[in-house]
Amino acid sequence: MTTAQIVGWAHSKFGKSDAPTTRELMAQVIHPALDHAGIEPQDVDGIFVGVFNNGFTKQDFQGALVAMAAEGFDHTPAVRMENACATGSAAIYSALDFIASGRGRIALVVGAEKMTNLPSKETGDVLLSACFREEEADVEGGFAGLFGRIASHYFQRYGDRSEELAMIAAKNHANGMANPYAHMQRDFSFEFCNTVSEKNPYVASPLRRTDCSLVSDGAAALVLAHPDVAAGMARAVAFRAHSHVNDILALSRRDPVAFDGARMAWTKSLDAAGFKLDDLDFVETHDCFTIAELIEYEAMGLAEPGEGHRVIREGTTTMGGKLPVNPSGGLKSKGHPVGATGVSMHVMAAMQLCGEAGEMQVPQASKAGVFNMGGAAVANYVSILERVK
């Protein structure tokens, strides 16, 4: 199968944006992504849009908004994908399939979300659409409450790891200081993250405010091209492997702290790429909550179940460690505009691999892993990326 390559990208500033809708957010990244790839709108054969929405705004039919946001796409086929917090990766993988099928040679992927127009309570209810409402919609604290339950189960089984969660939060905020696109460029100390206070209260015990990612607006875009086309462009990042594995939606029907789907996706992608985890130079992983990153250390193979705390304590995933995780600051610092997140994570990885990451650059990075998940490790996507030009 012919797998397309990343040849260009663009990324908006994440945070509370003055842009009133996803249309204006998309407009911030579409033409800049084309310019970065060195192409024109007429070169694009298909458009793949990732927007979760589900109540953030009354305007939907998001695929059609690209032509409303930017000139030159009036008759270009466009489709919108939704797969909870993995919506952006779903759009990317659909674009990869589009090019692999021979239906097109160049695809534009746009991920966006406008989250801050709603009051916090309504935002929380919209996000709960990514859980099994029949059993989980009444959880106190919304989606944070869901991951609070996961953290509680983990602590009951393996011991209280609140300190390690604070270490993960402090690491990601320190990394985010170097990311000009990050929602919160503030360097929170371990002591602040580890202390429950008026400024850092419990959101859903045992998770504190610093354990939770941010409600953000933002957009990101990628240009993907057939390898034959990419060969004539300024840069190219290859997908050495890409895997999507689902798990059961209801937490009651699986082990909530195992992240089995994530583990399977990592195994499939590393095997398909012919790589070991040690071959990677860094990883961008889905830290919607710090407990998620801790369990993901175990799912990707950095530690055995229950031993993820050792990874952060030993400094393995810091910028100077053996495998830096979330050099971008992750969702924790960068922000989490749901539909944009998966696209953003791939943009951040491509920037690193092409040496275009500025102050957040991982030295001599050539291979990367990206893990994006929808829901509580329900839709699991792992991409293994390598610069080829």
From TrEMBL:
Instruction: Extract the GO molecular function terms from the UniProt entry.
Output: acetyl-CoA C-acetyltransferase activity
Q: Which residues form the Thiolase N-terminal domain?
A: 6-226
Task: Name the Enzyme Commission number(s) assigned to this protein.
Answer: 2.3.1.9
Matching entries from Pfam families are given as:
Thiolase_C_1 (PF22691), Thiolase_N (PF00108)
* Segments traversing the membrane: none
Keywords noted in UniProt: Acyltransferase, Transferase
The residues covered by the Thiolase C-terminal domain are 250-387
What is the protein name for this chain? Acetyl-CoA acetyltransferase
User: To which species is this protein native?
Assistant: Pseudorhizobium pelagicum
